[in-house]
Amino acid sequence: MSGNDMTTFVISGAARTPVGVKCGTLSNFSPEDLAVSAANESMRRAGVEPDCIDATFGGNVYQFTAPGGQDIYFPRNVALRCELPIDTPSLLVQRICGSGFQTVVSAMQQIAMPNSMDETRVALCFGAETMSRAPRLSRAPRLSGADFWEFGTNGRLEDTILAGLNHDLFHTSMMVTADEYGASVGVTREEADTFADESHRRARAANEVSHLNGGDALRGMFAFELDNLDGDPVYLAHDECVRNTTVDELSRLRGFTPNGLVTPGNASEISDGAASLVVADRARADELGLPTRFEIIGYGIAGVEPRVMGRGPVPAIQRALERSGLSKDDIGLWEINEAFAAQAVGCQKELGIPSEKLNVNGGAVAIGHPLAATGARLLVDLMYEMERRGETLGCASACIGGGQGLAVIIRDTKRG
User: Which residues are catalytic?
Assistant: First the structure.
């Protein structure tokens, strides 16, 4: 690790909001509002004082969803609203669906720098998205000369969510890449629908035994309670996208893609949410008395052919395992983002991951996929579920629009 080879990275605090369905309970909050709640909760769980945070890293993809278009200040505003010192720097990262992961990777990279270059030892990482508020834009050009502050009237209207789901350079879309990848590794429509149904079933079961519902599951989630932008009080303590489904119902939905593998029922839900982690150098965490149970022991980032974007987790996981000196059989619990069921099943097939170890509390098909929050959400849920089940090693990964993948491996040091 750069100039500080002995750096050990720990997760001292981790928390996530419930995930809200599109145009649902969380839709009238800015990403900043959601991130502040998650960040404050992760710091509370870590027991870290704001003035002990050395840097912040925030992920947000759909800019201009906050009132007044203030998302360009997203990580800085979150830090200031969490009462971090004025001189604490903030960085916005954007790796699309891997942005939440990237906040952690960027924090680790900065922490690993020698003290002579950077003194960061404790970082606040967070990702948030309010996809419900993603705007429609007018692409009207500015006028020239003295009329610079005026716009033409011939601008093309653009739905920013739909625009982001396409990859114009390769003349494809995210759902088509999942369809093409799934078909290439033999995924059938029946397998995709069965996987989607199981995702909802597992998510329903997890919500029923959530710690917020008297059980011991989903302990990374906290009850979100805040006044929304209209001043109305809001309370949410479960993932809102989860539905009652059957394979028969899912099988009757029309396929949107050439091979018919992707439907509205087996694709991830457009949604809103946030997650946050406190990442620290173990030595500094020990000095501050912060929790050090969970270590980050490796990560991998890889590019893949954009037309099979959904394959991204495969090489990313392989790199993370190789760098960590592990095999896939060493991993006790997996979280692979379900951008589309066809893509997730494809990764499961290629990697040979047993179903009983993968997305055990459901995945994005049921829970939702608020883009920049997802990587952080996966790590939060993985960490707490490893503790709950007594697993030593866990891996979380996601495919990334444009043809990438990112994976992070964590270890419960109490068990190994």
Answer: 97, 399
